Amino acid sequence: MVNGLEFEKPVLELRNKIRELREFTKGSDVDLSEEIDRLESRLEKLEKDVYENMSPWDRVQVARHSSRPTTLDYIGELFTDFIELHGDRLFGDDAAIVGGIAKYKGLPVTVIGHQRGRDTKENIRRNFGMPHPEGYRKALRLMKQAEKFNRPIICFIDTKGAYPGKAAEERGQSEAIARNLFEMAGIKVPIICIVTGEGGSGGALALGVGDKMYMLENSTYSVITPEGAATILWKDATLAKQAAEAMKITAPDLLELGIIDEIIPEIKGGAHKDVEGQAKNIDWVLQETLKQLLQITPEKLIKDRYLKYKKMGKYTEQKEYENSPT
Hints:
Layout: H1 9-26, H2 33-51, H3 56-63, H4 71-78, E1 80-84, E2 97-104, E3 107-114, H5 120-125, H6 133-148, E4 153-159, H7 166-170, H8 173-185, E5 191-200, H9 201-205, E6 212-216, E7 220-222, H10 226-234, H11 240-247, H12 251-256, E8 262-264, H13 275-293, H14 298-310
Parallel strand pairs: 3-4, 4-5, 5-6, 5-7, 6-8
Antiparallel strand pairs: 1-2, 2-3
Helix pairs in contact: 1-2, 4-13, 6-8, 10-11
């Protein structure tokens, strides 16, 4: 049986075939080394073709993979002495956002991120990574604490969006997101944001105002899910694949549009294939970025952050014609 995403099934089938041949040769006198070598060469070519030519919808599927590393996975790989802090001091604690104090190569930092579950029980506890207002207020509390003690802030983004339920709206979901956007724009310490999976709607943006914005190669960042966009545009959620193509939600698209600063390469097949290896790719970017941002004064940080968002996006001007109506 082949387990995996639809687009990578040919790769997985060939890998299984090679594995079966190797196991067969161990218990017999038949020499299949030439056949195995031939299949391995074919596999290398097939992997390059499949993983380097992924469609936007393929990337959406990888970003949503149930085994994709979470914020806590990356915290365990990248940081030491992590102490998780809880509660927003207004209503309660939201398990859909985790945050706290840690050390990065000896440097005290504040780490905040969306957190999904691995199974049904944990997903229910963490509300499938969709925060309530208290989650965003907890994140802001930790950011203001980081500013007070001059600690850089690192945000990991991975959510379908903020929770749209009645209770969340009653407790001020929109205000909590808007407050984060406003406050993050003026935080006087470096803020590094990394989209590690899905970056959905305002729920992602509430942790996404920073000095540097990075995306993992197979992550997505958009104002709405492809299914939601398809429902609005064509009244048919099954057209999500076409919506993903049109929305420009992948890392290469957003780099071209100037929304993000850099793409962090993923392990072949996706970050879920090798969490430790993926963390090393993030580690290199974090190290270089912190080295750069820690040289900048608080005043210049805020000014550069403002200019970064002011110039975001690409625009075209309509030509004016002499006979056009005024």
